Amino acid sequence: MDAVVHATLESFDTATHDRLSADPVRNTVALTSLDRIRRSPATDLLPILVTFHENGEVIGSLIRTPPWPFQAADLPLAAAELAASLAARIDPDAPGVTGPRERSEAFATATGKNYTETLATRQYRLGTLARPTVEGTGRLATEEDVELLGTWRDAFLSEAVPEAPNEPATEAMRGSLRLGNGHALWVIDGTPVAWAVASLPQAGMTRVGPVYTPPEHRKHGYGAAVSAFVSQWALDQGATDVLLFADLTNPVSNSIYQRIGYQALDDWAEFWWKH
Fold first, then answer.
1. Neighbours of 178 (CB within 10 A)
2. Rounded to two decimals, what is the model's pTM?
3. In the predicted model, is pLDDT for residue 67 greater than 70?
4. Which end is more exposed in the chain, N or C (fewer Cβ atoms within 10 Å of the end residue's Cβ)?
5. Whole-number pLDDT of residue 46
6. Residue 42, CB half-sphere, CA atoms under 13 Å: how many?
7. Cα(255)–Cα(257) distance, rounded to whole angstroms?
8. Which region among 39-53, 93-107, 186-200 has the lowest average model confidence (pLDDT)?
9. Rounded CA gap, 20 and 26, in Å?
10. What one-character DSSP code corresponds to residue 95?
């Protein structure tokens, strides 16, 4: 087995596009993050793009879109040692790895570094959508909402993913809207009370998240309502696989998603290096 480090996204796409698109559920994070780079490139944060080959055939890949961890969803278990050795040479500043638990843990272990599990999630796929009956209405967010979206994004990350890199949230939300992602707000008497995002479909796949309800508006079903609203938006955009991840330490969110029609698929884990 050998590895190829790609200098350009075009080269990586040539080697992996068909492979990643053939399994959009497992490769959801790679497909959405690479699409974002294609359409809104940040030249100061070039992605790390690696493919693994055996007998002239691509058998897997590993990517990282700084400042986020490596994505190991397409990493063959047999390539974990090679991937860890290569990553140490070409990307020593990487903070960690995320992906299906078996693959991400194999990579983390192969690095020989001390690491901590920072996030355990369950991947879900929408079956038959069951929209709940909840006070209020849903609407799509616009440019006029970006300040609120930025504030809520910061609050979500602080609460759910405190290890996440610090990025300008308002600009990130403005860029996401311009890329065509669906940002939904649940509104009562003109006041937004919950927010959910769905990515523009890639290879028939859409991923929902983040989903956030401010503490003062919780326990009223608004999170379920806005999640169902944005899921319907995704279906209307032509998505055939509507996915989301739920934090396994939050049984409430896991039960909510199942009630509106999501079915469990696989467990993922994120590991960050200790310094």
1. 11
2. 0.94
3. yes
4. C
5. 84
6. 15
7. 6
8. 39-53
9. 8
10. -
Radius of gyration of the chain (CA): 19
Count CB-CB contacts under 10 A for residue 16.
22
pLDDT at position 92: 95
- And the tokens for 187? 């509104």
Please give the single-letter amino acid code of residue 13.
D
pLDDT at 167 over 80: no
Report the alpha-carbon distance of residue 30 to residue 28 in Å, rounded: 6
* 99 sits in which H/E element: strand 96-100
Rounded to whole angstroms, the Cα distance separating 134 from 260 reads 12
Residues in the chain: 275
Tokens found for residue 261: 């029609």
H helices present in 73-209, as ranges: 80-90, 101-111, 146-160, 169-178
Q: Is 238 helix (H, G, I), strand (E, B) or coil?
A: coil
Q: How far lies 215's CA from each of 114, 141, 156, 247, in Å? A: 34, 20, 11, 17
**Tokens of residue 77, six digits:** 């278990």
Dihedral sign for Cα 97, 93, 159, 152, please.
negative
Nearest to 139 by CA among 218, 229, 50: 229
